[in-house]
Amino acid sequence: MDFKRIECIFLLVFVAINIFLFVEIFQAPKLLNGVHTVNVQNNDLKNEIIADNITLPKISDEQGEGYYLATKEGHSWISKAKEQLSNNCTIVSSKDTDAIIVNLNKPVDLGNNKNKTLSNIKSFVLNTRNVYQGGKYKYIDSTADKSTYIFAQKSKYGLVTENHSQLSIVVKNNHIVSYMQYYVAPLNTLREKQATISSQAAIDALYTYSELPNNSHVLWISFVYSKLITTRGSIIFIPTWLVAIQNSNNKFTIFKRVNAFSGNVMTIDNEEDKGYIK
Q1: Which band of pLDDT confidence, cut at 50, 70 and 90, is reported for residue 16?
Q2: Closest-CA residue to 103 (of 93, 117, 113, 116)
Q3: Is 27 helix (H, G, I), strand (E, B) or coil?
Q4: What's the rounded Cα separation, in Å, for the pair 244 and 277?
Q5: Whole domain around residue 65: which residue ranges?
Q6: How many structural domains are present in the chain?
Q7: pLDDT tens digits, one per residue of 49-83
Q8: DSSP string of 76-99, one letter each residue
């Protein structure tokens, strides 16, 4: 290879490097300006939320990770539950639902100490002769009149807060009289972990789509798994942000869900979501 050819190659490489550096330097201010624009938009939203007299709990702009999860539909657990539970109850089930209603022949006295009512209910749930797989449920809330105590099913990926994974304990005159139980079979991942939006982004999405009323109070926001769809005999769950919102005027509480993958607001049945994580 002659000297002229080598010189030409070095010149072309030198020009290419300089063009690359020029492009990088030219783009840098734009990238920095983009970050600045996002920060300004976030600050504007925060100021608007404050101006609309909407109060928030502690939230974070830190992103997380989550999975698409799946489980099989089925009622096989019901026969196992009937075998496990004691004779001190009457179990009602239907082929049309994946739930059981358990009526206690002898109601369980919770005692006179109101401060121990919840702990006594939790002890009842953990007893394998009382509740099938009771250790897989976590207390989340109760109705205003303390007549129903709601538990959500736990998984290694997080709480599954669907109506069809709940345990609802019914209390009358300070006695456990019955309960309704749904149970979700073990969950399996469908894909690799994916990034999820922050709790701050979920609140911003609700506000942007006019789902946060003026003069309201966001009681809490929790990262949970919710049903997305049922297909070919499988139930698909996705990570969501579940938000409890209370109207400051009438104290009525509504629930909103935000898809933690896409940031879209999900349709929710507030009759089914009467009580969730505090």
Answers
A1: low
A2: 93
A3: helix
A4: 9
A5: 53-73+186-278
A6: 3
A7: 999 999 999 999 999 999 999 998 878 899 999 99
A8: HHHHHHHHHS-SSEEEEE-TT-SE
